[in-house]
Amino acid sequence: MVGARGLLLTMGKFHPKHWREWLLYQESRFPEVAELKLVWCFEIMARIETKMLSSKTNYATYLVFKFVETREGFETRPIEFDVYFEGNDTHKMHSALLDPPANMPQLSLNRRDGCMEIGMGEFFNENGDDGAVICRVCESEPTPKCGIIIEGIELRPKNGR
User: Fold this and answer.
1) What CATH homologous superfamily does 2-157 map to?
2) N or C, which terminus of the chain has less Cβ within 10 Å?
3) If you write DSSP's letter for every residue of 8-25 in order, what string do you get?
C-alpha cells in the first residue's frame, strides 16, 4: 500500500487551505492520513516501481478512503480511475460515484478497518522490469469537493493470471 504521505495530492499539496495533511488516524495501517478540506480540481496519484512487486502476477488496485460527516461533490460527479504503465499511452479509464445516492448501487466496499475501498483497475507485472505503474484518481469536470480522508492506494495480487 502507498500511504497518503507517498501520494501526489494535486491542487494544494502542503497548503492548509486545501488539505489537512498528516492527521493521526489510529485505525489506519499508516500513522498519518490526508483530509480534503476544499478543492475544485481533484487528483491523486501514486507511482510504484514494478521491480518492488512480484513478477508474473496480476494486481488489482484500490483507493482506500473514508468520508467525514460533512462532505460535498462526491455524490453527483463521477471520479475517474486509471492504472497504467508509465510512458504507455493506452489507458483503460473507468469512473464511479464515490458517494452515490441511496437509490444507486454502491461500488465501494466497507473494510474491517472502518475505511472503504473502491477498485481502480488492474495490471499484470510481467518480469518486474516494466518501469513504474501509475495509479491515478481524478475528475473530468472540476467541481467543489470536500470531506474525504485518503488513507492510500492499495495493490493486491489477484488469483490467476
Assistant:
1) Galactose-binding domain-like (2.60.120.260)
2) C
3) EE-SSTT-TTTEEEEEE-
- Burial of residue 102 (number of CB atoms within 10 Å: 0-12, 13-18, 19+): exposed
Tell me which residue of 31, 148, 32, 30 sits closest to 99, measured CA to CA: 148
φ/ψ (deg, to 5) at 20: -100, 105
Are 123 and 59 in contact, with CB atoms under 8 Å apart?
A: yes
Dist CA 93 CA 82 (whole Å): 5
- Domains of the chain, residue spans: 2-157
CA distance 160 to 56: 10
pLDDT tens-digit map of 96-123: 999 998 888 888 999 988 889 999 999 9
User: What are the pLDDT digits (tens) for 17-54?
Assistant: 677 666 656 666 667 788 888 888 888 999 999 999 99
